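Write out the 3D structure for:
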Amino acid sequence: AIVALGGALLWDAVRQERGLLLASRGFYGVLRVVREEPGEPDEYVKLLHGQITHGLQLSAPARRAELTAYYGPSSGAGLAIGRHPKRLASRPMRLGVIGLGVGTLAAWSLPGDVFRFYEIDPDVARLSEGPHPVFSFRRDGRGDVSLRLGDGRLVLEREGPQAFDVLVVDAFSSDSIPVHLLTREAFGVYLRHLAQGGVLAVHVTNRYLDLKPVVRGAAAELGLNAEHVPSFEQSLLWSSDWMLASRDRALLEDEVVRAATLPRLPGASTAVWRDDWSDLLGALKH
């Protein structure tokens, strides 16, 4: 048993080193940048935080702007942007994103758009900075793409209303949950920064926890409509779960969004987390 365990640990160590380009350990954990499919048309570089991939970018220069991972056109975030009335009318949009990752959502920006990322980890931010960044989505965005360093909720609490058409909350670290981003008070902060017709898109993909009731609970407390939009794996676009919440139902009633929405089952539960109370055990998947 000891020999088998040692062999398994050695194999895991070798596997993690394969294709490794960069590695760093900071206050928020271990980050690794890894190259996959070297020499192939689909060669890409990905960012790992612990064992969880937080985004990837294709290596071929002609393909570096392609959408990947959890942010394709059929994802909740993609639908919130691509089917927003302003985008359909070819009007400029304002987008906020809590959690930079590799900056993939910047690929959605068009000339005249304003995209603002909020990132707590300076090591993650550095991977998208400078004239030759590891991940170039942010640099190559066609709109005005900026970054605010710090905890997204705390920065938003200090800022005046930003009138975001879409605010994306995607700041999960590995499979751990930043509870303070999912409380009723946090949603109150987000609501203050949404424009009329604005949409909140919350990434709730998780192997162990069902966070949909938590988003529904906070949304209901603030009079928001909330819907579950799943997407399914297609090559380098991965399966994901998103919750879309808005004061009105204009985007939620869009025919494409409605077709992608998974109807809520009768009797589906809700949970309201607060800054002084949350229930991770109650959110465990059964």
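The radius of gyration is 19 Å.
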